[in-house]
């Protein structure tokens, strides 16, 4: 442990982050309907399906393995896992609710009581240990019925279904959940709409039009959720959630600098501006014109968006991105559904994601300068191969080093004057990777004995990083 000499705010929300579809399992239990994650196969083929056109959203168990069906069985082991989170000292646990566990098809008027009761138990268990739930309403798990019958978020009808779903959650959990976020990594749809918008584009020609129309529907739905949440739960904090990656120019050529600026605007700021400022940014008009994007905006949409803005920004940060207008001859780098050119000053993870702790400080400063609302780092972590030693120990010093440097930069941003609410490390317990469906891409402080092909006992085991993070929380970041 090293002294950090940094002062984190009193009440800072230290904790960990997960998503229902990646850890719960029990995909067809107690009335839950199938959702998007349930039809995504495991392995590298998953990334191909996410990026490709015309995915059929069917399950073929003869051809593929579907790791999200079992996850890590949090559905039956939540008490054990929450006890481990409490042992680390978590102040907050960022989680999501599976939409199809509450509304199995998505378009019903009445919810599934068994699904609601499950989350009652989870919230009660968290509160028993003094852990504040931070709940994402929609995290890559749209009901399959809404995808197949309505075309996902391409359909305006889905706005009403989501409003009913969100309102149901607020009414049920008004005394149990204060912190909410509407859509996970909403801007990720700019690259691949399948995860966030629930459709697979037919071709590149139609992708942008359908994507931004779907995003507009989500903007309206998010604002309606903010309205309902504030009315039903006075004092609640309802945020948006973005992937955030600062975009660097590959060099000081003004052409590349402006190209990087435009990439950053389109990916990082359109969604943020609508959520926080309550309006589309000025540069969006030109971008839409140049890409033949013609949004169908109904009367009252812009008024709703303007009036019901979010209280804070939650965001994931894993890497920065380096761009160049002409990429021919350049080595490409991919990570977290984004790509760019190689940054010679950065090392990369086992999965090729470039590691840039200072980029997190840059991200926090950029976001706070632009929006002046509280920020919450709700995802950050290192996916890596973990080795179990002969004595059963797991020495994940590489993970400790990664997290230490990123947390240090958050502390620096706080010193810069940025209002940071908290930090929830991604995948605080090993879970199914969203992009590849692998278990071997491990993020957790807690090892779960499950392998890529589905074998394993599901036994939980503490890694070296468990005790390290426990002390970080205990000292409020004074010892890293």
Automatic annotation (TrEMBL):
One of its GO terms (biological process) is carbohydrate catabolic process. Keywords: Glycosidase, Hydrolase. One of its GO terms (molecular function) is beta-glucosidase activity. It comes from the Bacteria. The active site is at residue 379. Pfam families: Glyco_hydro_1 (PF00232). One of its GO terms (cellular component) is cytosol. NCBIfam families: PRK09589.1, PRK09593.1, PRK09852.1. Belongs to the glycosyl hydrolase 1 family. This is Glycoside hydrolase family 1 protein.
């Amino acid at each position: 442990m090293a002294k950090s000499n940094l002062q984190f705010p009193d009440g800072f929300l230290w904790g960990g982050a997960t998503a229902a579809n990646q850890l719960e399992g029990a995909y067809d239990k107690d009335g839950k309907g199938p959702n998007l994650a349930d039809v995504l196969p495991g392995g590298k083929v998953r990334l191909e399906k996410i990026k490709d056109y015309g995915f059929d959203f069917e399950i073929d168990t003869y051809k593929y393995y579907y790791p999200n069906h079992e996850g890590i069985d949090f559905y039956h082991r939540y008490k054990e896992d929450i006890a481990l989170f409490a042992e680390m000292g978590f102040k907050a646990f960022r989680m999501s609710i599976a939409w199809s566990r509450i509304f199995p098809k998505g378009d019903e008027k009445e919810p599934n009581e068994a699904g609601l009761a499950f989350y009652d138990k989870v919230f009660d268990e968290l509160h028993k240990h003094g852990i504040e739930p931070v709940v994402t309403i929609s995290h890559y798990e749209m009901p399959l019925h809404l995808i197949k019958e309505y075309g996902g978020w391409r359909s305006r009808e889905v706005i009403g279904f989501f409003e009913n779903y969100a309102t149901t959650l607020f009414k049920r959990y008004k005394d149990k959940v204060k912190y909410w976020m509407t859509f996970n990594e909403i801007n990720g749809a700019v690259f691949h709409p399948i995860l966030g918008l629930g459709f697979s584009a037919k071709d590149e020609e139609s992708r942008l039009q359908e994507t931004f129309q779907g995003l507009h529907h989500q903007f309206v739905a998010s604002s309606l959720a903010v309205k309902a949440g504030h009315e039903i739960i006075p004092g609640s904090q309802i945020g948006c959630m973005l992937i955030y990656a600062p975009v660097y120019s590959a060099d000081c050529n003004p052409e590349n600098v402006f190209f990087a600026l435009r990439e950053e605007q389109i990916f990082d700021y359109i969604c943020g501006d609508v959520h926080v400022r309550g309006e589309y940014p000025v540069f969006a008009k030109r971008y839409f014109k140049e890409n033949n994007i013609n949004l169908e905006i109904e009367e009252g949409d812009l008024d709703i968006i303007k009036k019901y803005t979010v209280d804070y920004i939650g965001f994931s940060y894993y890497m920065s991105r380096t761009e160049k207008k002409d990429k021919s001859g350049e080595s490409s780098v991919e990570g977290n559904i984004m790509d760019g050119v190689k940054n010679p000053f950065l090392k990369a993870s086992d999965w090729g994601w470039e590691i840039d702790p200072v980029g997190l400080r840059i991200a926090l400063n950029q976001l706070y300068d632009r929006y002046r609302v509280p920020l919450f780092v709700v995802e950050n972590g290192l996916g890596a191969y973990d080795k179990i030693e002969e004595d059963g120990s797991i020495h994940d010093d590489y993970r400790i080093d990664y997290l230490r440097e990123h947390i240090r930069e958050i502390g620096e941003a706080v010193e810069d004057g940025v209002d940071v609410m908290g930090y929830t490390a991604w995948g605080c317990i090993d879970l199914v990777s969203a992009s590849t469906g692998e278990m071997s891409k491990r993020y957790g402080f807690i090892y779960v004995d499950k392998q890529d092909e589905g074998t394993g006992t599901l036994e939980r085991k503490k890694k070296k990083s468990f005790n390290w993070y426990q002390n970080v929380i205990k000292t409020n970041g004074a010892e890293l």
